[in-house]
Amino acid sequence: MSAEQLNRVRALDRAAVLAAAEVGCRVRPADLVRATPCGDWTVADLLNHLSIQHRGFAAAARGEGGDLAIWAPRPPAADPVADFLAATAEVLTAFAADEVETVPFQLPEISTALEFPAAQAMSFHFIDYVVHSWDLARSIGTRPDLDQSVLEAAWPVAQQVPDEARGRPGSPFAAKAAVAPAAPLLDRIVAHLGRSPDWTPATEPVGAAATGRRQR
């Protein structure tokens, strides 16, 4: 992939990551125990997952992603929002490095045998944060600020997720959800990746934040 194509993917990923970070800045302490569209994760669990993924991809961009301990679930930080914003800065810095183009990304959650070129790895991260920005926003009753150009780039990436990869233990995506053909593009993206576009936050928090990894 050319440097121009890599820079395009990097810019798209940055837009999705910053959209998720902007939503994260709206999360208040009382929101941390609220439900999310991600199974039985709370907002604290989701922020924790996003932080772990950011740091995993940042490590991969430095050629250090093969260490499974980096990707391992752990309890949420004392301040999940601050931890998420710190992890956001870490991955954006790692992806922006000049030498990242030559680094083979090790992503053991996807494959322990394969390595991925930078642009392909960033595209995985990109679609994850388009969807997770929606997850986080819906959990607090709002929507992420994603430009139409970002969504138009995300749609073909979402369509590449194979049906056989859905619903298995550890799979990040559930079966496709129903959505109207004329629905907004973000709704079609999240539905294609197993979310119900009509999901709304529960009127009551779900209780203390859990720490285990669940279907995202």
Contiguous helical run count:
7
Give, in order, the helices and strands. HHHHEEHHH
On the 0 to 100 scale, the average pLDDT is 89
Could you give the distance between the termini? 29 Å
Structure classification? mainly alpha
Main sheet: strand order: 1-2
Helix percentage range: 40-55%
Q: Please describe the biggest sheet, giving its number of strands, its sense, and whether it closes into a barrel.
A: 2 strands, antiparallel
Radius of gyration: 16 Å
Structure overview:
- By secondary structure, this protein is an all-alpha fold.
- 48% of the residues lie in helices and 2% in strands.
- It is built from seven helices and two strands.
- The chain has helices at residues 3-24, 43-61, 68-71, 80-96, 118-139, 148-159, 185-192; strands at 105-106, 115-116.
- The protein has a two-stranded antiparallel ribbon.
- β1 (105-106) and β2 (115-116) form a beta hairpin.
- α1 runs antiparallel to α4 and α2 runs parallel beside α4 (80-96).
- The radius of gyration is 16 Å and the shape is globular.
- Mean pLDDT is 89; it is low at 207-216.
Summarize this entry quickly:
The chain is an all-alpha fold and 216 residues long. The chain has helices spanning 3-24, 43-61, 68-71, 80-96, 118-139, 148-159, 185-192; strands at residues 105-106, 115-116. The chain contains seven helices and two strands; from the N terminus they run H-H-H-H-E-E-H-H-H.
Keyword list:
216 residues; mainly alpha; disordered C terminus
